[in-house]
Specification:
Number of helices: 3
Structural class: mainly alpha
Shape: rod-shaped
Strand content: under 5%
Distance between the termini: 72 Å
Helix content: over 70%
Largest sheet: none
């Protein structure tokens, strides 16, 4: 694949990953990431200034997605912990009600 087309495709996939992450569709984000990963291997070391700008944009988007994913993971862990405490409390209530 020609380098400019390759970089355009990488950006397109990155933007799709960003959208999937914004929609909390982590499975789609993962699928798109798997599709995108091998394309990075096709990049050549020599890139012009325009290509480097796009690559830097991709890196910035990736960093933002990673940060959002970490925040989402922390929020899910808090929600899970809270739900488990409620389940335990309900279980104790039911056990006490039996006696």
């Amino acid at each position: 694949m020609e380098q400019n087309s390759l970089i355009d495709r990488l950006l397109e996939l990155t933007l799709a990953i960003q959208h999937a992450a914004a929609m909390a569709d982590w499975q789609e984000a993962a699928r798109l990431t798997e599709e995108r990963t091998p394309l990075f291997m096709e990049l050549t070391p020599e890139q012009d200034a325009t290509a480097m700008e796009v690559i830097n944009r991709i890196q910035a988007i990736d960093a933002a997605i990673a940060s959002d994913a970490k925040t989402t993971q922390s929020e899910l862990q808090i929600e899970y912990s809270s739900a488990m405490k409620k389940v335990q409390a309900a279980s104790k209530y039911h056990q006490a009600a039996k006696f």
